[in-house]
Design brief:
The protein contains 11 helices and 8 strands. The chain is an alpha/beta fold and about 220 residues long. Helix 1 runs parallel beside helix 3, helix 6 runs parallel beside helix 8 and helix 8 runs parallel beside helix 9. The radius of gyration is 19 Å and the shape is globular. The two termini are about 35 Å apart. The protein binds erythose-4-phosphate.
Length: about 220
C-alpha cells in the first residue's frame, strides 16, 4: 500500500519525507490557497522533495483550458500527476493526457459508476472521498470496497484506488483492509498512526529498567 500526504505545506512534506514512508503527495486548490504560495512554485518544490507522483489540480472547468493547464502542470516536472475533476470535460482531459503518457488523478469521486468512467478514461488514480461521504451519513468505505471489487474484475483497468478525504487512522486501516492501492492523508493522520499508549508505557518501563543495569550498548 502506498502512502501519499495531502498537503501543500513544504516544511511538513520535507519532515515527513525524511521518514522514508511517503510515496507521493496530493494537493488541491484549497490546499494551495492555504499555503499562500503560487501553485507552480510550490508544486515544483514538492516534486524535488518527493520522487513519487505529486498531484497538481487544474483550476478551470472547461475542456480547452483544463487541457492547457494540465499540460503546463505536467511540463513542470516528470513526477507531476495532473488532477482533474470527475466531470465530462475532466474525463475528456484525462483521456487525452493519459494517451500522451501523463499520469492523471481523477478527483471528487463519490460513486462506483464515476470510478468506472475514470478507469475507462485511462486514469492512473481515482480519488474517492471517504470523509466527505461519511460527513453526509453515507459509508465512505463501502465505496472503496465497491471500486476495489469492480476494478479487480477487469485486469485491463490500470487505475489505482487512492482513498482520499481521510480523517483519522481508522480510515487508513480500513482502506488497507479493503485493498486500496494508495491512501492520501493529512500529515496529522500519518503522525497519529505511530501512536499507541501501550507503546509509550512499555518504552518507559524498558528505559527505566535499562537505566538500572548501568550498561551501555555503545
Ligand atoms: C484528495 O486528493 C483531496 O485533496 C483531499 O483528500 C480532500 O480531503 P478533505 O475532504 O479533507 O478536504
Amino acid at each position: 500500500m502506498k502512502f501519499f500526504i495531502d498537503t501543500a505545506e513544504v516544511p511538513e512534506i520535507r519532515e515527513l519525507a525524511a521518514t522514508g514512508l511517503v510515496d507521493g503527495v496530493t494537493t488541491n486548490p484549497t490546499l494551495i490557497a492555504k499555503s499562500g504560495r503560487k501553485i507552480l512554485d510550490v508544486i515544483a518544490e514538492i516534486c524535488d522533495i518527493v520522487p513519487g507522483p505529486i498531484s497538481a489540480e487544474v483550476a478551470a472547468t472547461d475542456f480547452d483550458t483544463m487541457l492547457e493547464e494540465g499540460r503546463k502542470l505536467a511540463r513542470l516536472r516528470p513526477n507531476v500527476a495532473v488532477k482533474v475533476p470527475l466531470t465530462p470535460a475532466g474525463l475528456k482531459v484525462c483521456k487525452v493526457l493519459s494517451d500522451d503518457g501523463v499520469k492523471v488523478n481523477v478527483t471528487l469521486c463519490f460513486s462506483a459508476n464515476q470510478a468506472i468512467l475514470a478507469a475507462k478514461a485511462g486514469a492512473s488514480f481515482i480519488s474517492p472521498f471517504v470523509g466527505r461521504l461519511d460527513d453526509i451519513g453515507q459509508d465512505g468505505m463501502e465505496l472503496i470496497a465497491d471500486i476495489v471489487g469492480i476494478y479487480r474484475e477487469y485486469p485491463a483497468f490500470r487505475t489505482e484506488v487512492l482513498a482520499a478525504s481521510i480523517r483519522h487512522p481508522m480510515h487508513v486501516t480500513e482502506a488497507a483492509r479493503l485493498g486500496a492501492h494508495v491512501v492520501t492523508m493529512p500529515p496529522s493522520v500519518l503522525r497519529q498512526m505511530y501512536s499507541h499508549p501501550l507503546t509509550d508505557k512499555g518504552l518507559a518501563a524498558f528505559m527505566s529498567d535499562w537505566a538500572k543495569t548501568g550498561q551501555s550498548i555503545l
